[in-house]
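Study this pair:
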Amino acid sequence: MPVWVTGPLTPIPPGQRRMYAEFVDAIAYWLWQFASAISPVLQGIRRQYSVLRVIVELNWEGDDLDNGGTLEEAAEPLVVAAPDRDRGVIVVRFGKAIEDALATADNEG
């Protein structure tokens, strides 16, 4: 089953395009790495959809791109996945504080 990982349907601000590309690439890479493990799940979904789409959203509206959020300041979860079963879409929203969680040597957060 094809899985497309993309940015949002809305225009991406020029200052965030590089960051979106990195997140899209990372999710696509890990889906590929786990392909054999998630294949049974995708086969079940295949009966209903011809393509699964994963949409990456950086929930950073109003944030200063040069000033990362801190884990202590994070009022919302770092990552939220919201499935839209009617369309065969999973929207994955990353909070700004995810940058600090991923910036450690071991990604432990």
Remarks:
- The helical segments are 17-33, 35-46, 98-102.
